């Protein structure tokens, strides 16, 4: 991480994470995709109680089987990482971009030549806030990650010190959304980023500004 500070009193220490090769990532991503379907089916199902009891036992058995070989921490992709800056790109279990994380939409990120970042994604009813609309906190999570990735892509990664959102119009569920972010300016250790979410008609639903501070590392 360029210019990262070290300190006797670090804000956090990066834990050792096991790096996975592409083939294993593919297999775990396929599993996570099915669990994502399971999550959604659980919310929408109208099956009778007897069947639910039986299915609950089956899911418990599957979970027990997976958990029998539990890692202390989620793995990462590639060669592993030692700094938070690299970690953002290799965090395959991120709740926003992680292919391995069943709660992630997941948002697949494009890194554009001008340094900005972009993603197209859809939110289903698992992310509902007001009836039929996206939860504002979920949109905030997506934007926090995206603006953070813009800071990272700029070579100035950091932790979110502030995140300000303006919810202009409701963000719909079940339709293609676009989110984009770029760095606005750098002031010392502080990287200021701007971003937004657009609906399928290209209208802005949320605007965001954030400030990222490069942390002290252990
Ligand atoms: C591994 C990658 C994960 C990616 C996840 C995606 C993004 C995230 O979710 S990050 C998680 C959420 N954020 C956090 O948990 C951060 C918690 N906060 C902290 O750790 C610290 O307060 C931190 C790192 C932001 C700043 O701490 P520290 O390094 O001690 O900075 P500090 O010396 O206090 O301040 C540095 C500068 O930033 C300014 N600053 C700090 N916080 C703020 C703030 N909230 N608002 C405005 N200015 C601030 C200070 O005034 C100072 O400015 P100047 O240099 O001009 O005097």
UniProtKB/TrEMBL annotation:
Question: Mind telling me what this protein is named?
Answer: Acyl-coenzyme A thioesterase THEM4
Thioesterase domain: residues covered: 132-204
Q: Which InterPro entries match?
A: HotDog_dom_sf, THEM4/THEM5_acyl-CoA_thioest, Thioestr_dom
Reactions mediated catalytically = tetradecanoyl-CoA + H2O = tetradecanoate + CoA + H(+); octanoyl-CoA + H2O = octanoate + CoA + H(+); decanoyl-CoA + H2O = decanoate + CoA + H(+); (5Z,8Z,11Z,14Z)-eicosatetraenoyl-CoA + H2O = (5Z,8Z,11Z,14Z)-eicosatetraenoate + CoA + H(+)
Q: What is its EC number?
A: 3.1.2.2
- Entry's family note: Belongs to the THEM4/THEM5 thioesterase family.
**Matches recorded under PANTHER family:** ACYL-COENZYME A THIOESTERASE THEM4
Protein's UniProt keywords contain NAD: no
Membrane association type:
Peripheral membrane protein
Q: What are the protein's UniProt keywords?
A: Apoptosis, Cell membrane, Cell projection, Cytoplasm, Fatty acid metabolism, Hydrolase, Lipid metabolism, Membrane, Transit peptide
Q: Which domain of life is it from?
A: Bacteria
Name its cellular compartments.
Answer: Cell projection, Ruffle membrane; Cytoplasm; Membrane
Q: Identify the enzyme class.
A: hydrolase
């Amino acid at each position: 991480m360029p210019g990262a500070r070290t300190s006797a009193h670090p804000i956090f220490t990066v834990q050792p994470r096991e790096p996975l090769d592409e083939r294993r990532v593919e297999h775990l991503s396929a599993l996570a995709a099915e669990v994502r379907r399971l999550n959604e089916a659980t919310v929408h199902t109208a099956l009778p109680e007897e069947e639910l009891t039986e299915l609950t036992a089956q899911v418990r058995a599957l979970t027990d089987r997976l958990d029998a070989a539990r890692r202390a921490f989620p793995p990462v992709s590639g060669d592993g990482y030692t700094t938070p800056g690299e970690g953002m790109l290799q965090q395959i279990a991120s709740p926003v971009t992680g292919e391995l994380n069943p709660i992630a939409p997941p948002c697949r990120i494009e890194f554009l030549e001008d340094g900005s970042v972009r993603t197209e994604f859809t939110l289903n009813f698992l992310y509902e806030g007001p009836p039929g609309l996206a939860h504002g906190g979920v949109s905030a999570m997506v934007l926090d990650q995206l603006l953070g990735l813009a800071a990272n892509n700029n070579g100035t990664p950091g932790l979110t010190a502030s995140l300000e959102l303006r919810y202009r119009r409701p963000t719909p569920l079940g339709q293609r959304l676009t989110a984009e972010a770029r760095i606005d300016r750098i002031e010392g250790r502080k990287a200021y980023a701007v971003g937004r979410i657009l609906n399928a008609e290209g209208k802005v639903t949320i605007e965001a500004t954030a400030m990222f501070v490069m942390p002290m590392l252990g």
